[in-house]
C-alpha cells in the first residue's frame, strides 16, 4: 500500500480491527520512509458481487456506496449531523439493499430509503433531498411535504 503523502511504496500495518459493519477491516498504517513516517487509515472490504442500479431510463450502473454517501453529505451540509451518523446511515442502507436485492435494484428504491433515513435524522436535510429527488415543481408541493413532516414530528 502506497503512502498517500509521499508515494513511498512501503508502509507497515500498525493496527487492524474489524469495521463497524463487520464487512470491512480498518487498518492503521505507517509510512516507512523516515522523512515522512505519517500514519493513515485504510479500509479493506470483502469482495462482493456487483449490485446494479436500474435507473428510470432503464440504464444500469454499478451501485456505489461512495455516491450514496456523497448524496447524503450534500443533503446534510451545514446540518448538525456527524460523519459517524452519515456513515452509519450509508452502511445501513447499503447492507439492506444487498440483502434484499441480489443483482439489481431500482434507483427509486434507493431514493426512498435515503428519504426514510433522512426523515428520521434531520428535517431540513430531508426536505433538501426530497426537493431534488422528487423534483418538486412548485412551492405548494414542497410546502405540503414540509407540513406532513411537521405533522409527523408532533406525534
Ligand atoms: Zn510517506
Structural account:
The structure is a single chain. The chain is of the alpha+beta class and 155 residues long. It has a three-stranded antiparallel sheet with strand order 1-2-3, with no helix packed on it. Bound molecules: zinc ion. Zinc ion binds next to loops.
Structural class by helix and strand composition: alpha+beta
Number of strands: 6
Looking at how many chains there are and whether they match, the oligomeric state comes to single chain
Mean pLDDT: 85
List keywords for this structure.
155 residues, alpha+beta, 2 domains, three-stranded antiparallel beta sheet, three-stranded mixed beta sheet, 5 helices, 6 strands, 21% strand, binds zinc ion
What's this, in brief?
The protein is 46% helix and 21% strand.
Topology:
Layout: E1 11-18, E2 24-31, E3 39-45, E4 52-54, E5 60-62, H1 65-75, H2 83-100, E6 104-106, H3 107-121, H4 123-133, H5 139-154
Parallel strand pairs: 4-6
Antiparallel strand pairs: 1-2, 2-3, 4-5
Helix pairs in contact: 1-2, 1-4, 3-4
Zinc ion binds next to loops.
Amino acid at each position: 500500500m502506497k503512502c498517500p503523502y509521499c508515494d513511498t511504496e512501503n508502509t507497515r500495518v500498525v493496527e487492524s480491527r474489524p469495521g463497524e459493519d463487520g464487512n470491512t477491516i480498518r487498518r492503521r498504517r505507517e509510512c516507512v520512509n523516515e522523512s515522512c513516517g505519517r500514519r493513515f487509515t485504510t479500509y479493506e472490504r470483502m469482495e462482493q458481487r456487483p449490485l446494479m442500479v436500474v435507473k428510470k431510463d432503464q440504464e444500469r450502473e454499478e451501485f456505489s456506496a461512495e455516491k450514496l454517501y456523497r448524496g447524503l453529505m450534500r443533503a446534510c451540509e451545514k446540518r448538525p449531523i456527524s460523519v459517524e451518523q452519515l456513515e452509519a446511515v450509508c452502511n445501513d442502507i447499503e447492507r439492506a439493499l444487498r440483502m434484499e436485492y441480489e443483482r439489481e435494484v431500482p434507483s427509486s428504491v434507493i431514493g426512498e430509503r435515503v428519504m426514510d433515513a433522512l426523515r428520521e435524522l434531520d428535517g431540513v436535510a430531508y426536505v433538501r433531498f426530497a426537493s431534488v429527488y422528487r423534483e418538486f415543481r412548485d412551492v405548494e408541493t414542497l410546502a405540503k411535504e414540509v407540513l406532513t413532516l411537521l405533522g409527523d414530528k408532533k406525534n
